[in-house]
Amino acid sequence: MRPLNTMTRRELEAYIGEKREGMRKAEMMGVENEYRVLERQVLIAESYFVDLSLIEPGKIYKIISNEDHYFKVEYIKGIFAWGFFVGGEEKETGIPVSMLQLTKRG
């Protein structure tokens, strides 16, 4: 398989579709760990569709699909936002930018 960063939009969409199908099957079979791995692969692939100019270092963003989780972005490296979960006790961590709830400028 080619690296995700070399794929066209269409190829990424097909890749995401395959992984989502795998997630559906894993969920039906009750294989939680496989589901989580595939879910992470989808989040990483979807990050290539994110307009990185919408992410501002120092700003706090809501995490998509997690009601009360927020993430303060310190910097962007590739397709990962590095920073801290608000209220968390973790050290600096990186998350795929597709996990951040962004609003379009304008």
From TrEMBL:
Highest rank taxon of the organism: Bacteria
Pfam families: DUF1811 (PF08838)
Protein name per the record: YfhH family protein
Provenance organism: Salinicoccus sesuvii
Source species taxonomy: Bacteria, Bacillati, Bacillota, Bacilli, Bacillales
